[in-house]
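Researcher: Please predict.
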Amino acid sequence: MKLHELKPNAGATHRRKRVARGISAGQGKTAGRGTKGQGARQGGGPSQYFQGGNLPFFRKLPFKRGFSPLARMTYQEINLDALKELPKGAVVTPEFLAEQGLISDAKKPVAVLGRGEIKAALTLRVQKVSGGAKTKIEAAGGKVEEWQPAKKEPRG
């Protein structure tokens, strides 16, 4: 069998319906759109959320659900398996991780998660460390120092 011999299964493909090409084509005159009315016009037809004149579903819902917290913290996550190549005794800070290319932005907070194993004794100075990661780091002889950057005072 060669590439040019491949064909779709019988009945898997259909010829395109050529509408408005005369009466003998079977879809002449109104081209399957019926006669007159909104659906017969070009670009016509109701909008996507039209429900036959009923109150649309999205209007039945309350105006706004929940809220978006203004002070949401999004962490850059890094797993222990990414830290296993670091030298023994290294002090791991967001700046150090950014230099190594392990995170994209040193200014954003970092969370260390526990996937993987670590053998070198490292000192971690990051914003968050999961419980599993903390036990693995301390078992390898390392230290975990969680710290939060100084918060800005709210205006007002």
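Model: Residues 56 and 110 are 44 Å apart (CA to CA).
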